[in-house]
Design brief:
Elements: H1 5-10, E1 18-19, E2 22-23, E3 25-26, H2 37-50, H3 60-80, E4 88-91, H4 94-105, E5 114-118, H5 127-136, E6 139-143, H6 153-159, E7 164-170, H7 182-190, E8 196-199, H8 211-214, E9 218-222, E10 233-237, H9 239-244, E11 255-258, E12 263-265, H10 279-295, H11 297-317, E13 321-324, E14 333-338, H12 343-352, E15 355-356, E16 358-360, H13 365-371, E17 376-380, H14 387-404
Parallel strand pairs: 3-15, 5-6, 5-7, 7-8, 8-9
Antiparallel strand pairs: 1-2, 4-10, 9-10, 11-12, 13-14, 14-17, 16-17
The protein binds pyridoxal-5'-phosphate.
Pyridoxal-5'-phosphate binds at residues 93-95, 122, 124-125, 170, 174, 199, 201-202, 222, 224, 363.
């Protein structure tokens, strides 16, 4: 099946506007994706007609909201192919999910233990582990990358040891687009009984993810990168691991009973969902998942690869442009620099032309340090983008070069 681009673009109201007098070209999808009308309508309808707090009320509105909320959990379960719906924890996003696990590991890690991450991580999969290590005396170890922006797998295998208590790595890099060989990592880690957390923030918008096939212990994602609302995310965890970890936050909903002498915690998933959750966000995320499922994640992946190939070829034609991240296996992200031109200047001129790209370190300062650059210009494509828009980017870059050249 081919993507029906005209129909799809109509589904996204935000795309049909002018920015600085030019039709918007939105190439900042790795930072956050736009929302189809079904998601916007779902949230509006919830607040207009359905709002009530969940899990607590005997009245009809509360029961209906609870049912919708729990139905969304089942949608996520099916989307990730988790074994149980109680392995799906609703969080604020990827950052929140990783912090939940990192907080739990504070009660597991001891002096001399190691947490293995990679040089390719977003800050949100670095800092929580640094904090966990600081509090426990454990050490952070880092898989280095090569010039293409790929993990050096030999180094990974050397770093994996009996001291390693967790491997926490991203599935797809936000800064360079590398699709990482997580299967090999999980296989090697499991041969030493080491659990693996995958940061799936950038994988889930581009590909189908099957957590049972992957066999990872934890998988974190963000709703807003998956065409859903901000402030909602998912942490998948294997049942035995979620049972092993202590609660992240205390409060309502996460308890079975409370007295001043002793509190007993609720069972999964509620143990990790303290307080009134983001009900509207959960319902919006369900709509977003239904939406991309209807298009087909394989159809999306194929079309985005076409955009990636086209964009890479166009940008490579520009004299003085250099693409950072040239892995064999890549998602639709192109990070680049123009010789002698600061990324902010490129981004600012492109914005004047209505083209939204991201500039800077993309919350991955260690990658920029690795390449000895202050940051990059990043164009990241979603399935609602077109080759014509990439042509506009190409023309825009030529304009930037003329102005600063
Ligand atoms: N991990 C990766 C690879 C990301 O790209 C991002 C966001 O850009 C995050 C984690 C953090 O996601 P959030 O800010 O939605 O928690």
């Amino acid at each position: 099946m081919k993507i029906n681009i005209e129909k799809i673009r109509k589904d996204f109201p935000v795309l049909h506007q002018e920015v600085n007098g030019k039709p918007l070209v939105y190439f900042d999808n790795a930072a956050s994706t736009q929302k189809p009308k079904v998601v916007i309508d779902r949230i509006a309808n919830y607040y207009a007609n359905e709002h009530s707090n969940i899990h607590r009320g005997v009245h009809s509105l509360s029961a209906a909201a609870t049912e919708e909320y729990e139905a969304a959990r089942k949608t996520v379960q099916a989307h990730l192919n988790a074994t149980h719906d109680h392995e799906i924890i609703f969080t604020k996003g990827t950052t929140d999910g990783i912090n939940l696990v990192a907080n739990g590991f504070r009660s597991i890690l001891k002096e001399g233990d190691e947490v293995l991450i990679s040089e390719l991580e977003h800050h949100s999969n670095i800092v929580p582990w640094q904090m966990a290590c600081e509090g426990t005396g454990a050490k952070l170890k880092v898989i280095p990358i090569n010039d293409q922006g790929e993990w050096i797998m030999e180094e990974f295998h050397n770093l994996l040891s009996d001291r390693t208590k967790l491997v926490a790595v991203n599935h797809v890099s936000n800064a360079l687009g590398t699709i990482n060989p997580v299967e090999e990592v999980i296989h090697a880690a499991h041969s030493k009984n080491i659990p693996v957390l995958l940061d799936g923030a950038q994988a889930t918008p581009h590909m189908g993810v099957n957590v049972q096939d992957l066999d990872c212990e934890f998988y974190a994602l963000s709703g807003h990168k998956l065409f859903g609302p901000t402030g909602i995310g998912v942490l998948y965890g294997k049942e035995d691991w979620l049972n092993k970890l202590p609660p992240y936050q205390g409060g309502g909903d996460m308890i079975k009973s409370v007295s001043f002498e002793k509190t007993t915690y609720n069972e999964l998933p509620f143990k990790f969902e303290a307080g009134t959750p983001n009900i509207a966000g959960v319902l919006g995320l369900k709509s977003a998942i239904d939406y991309v499922t209807a298009i087909g994640l394989d159809v999306i992946a194929e079309y985005e690869q076409e955009l990636l190939e086209y964009g890479t070829e166009k940008l490579s034609q520009i004299e003085g442009s250099k693409i950072y991240g040239t892995a064999k296996n890549k998602a639709s992200v192109i990070s680049f620099l123009l010789e002698g031109i600061h990324p902010y200047d490129t981004g600012t001129i492109l914005d004047k032309l209505g083209i939204a790209v991201r500039t800077g370190h993309h919350c991955t300062e260690p990658i920029m340090t690795r390449f000895g650059i202050p940051g990059t210009v990043r164009a990241s494509f979603a399935f609602y983008n077109t080759k014509e828009e990439i042509d506009k980017l190409y023309d825009g870059i030529l304009r930037v070069k003329k102005m600063f050249g």
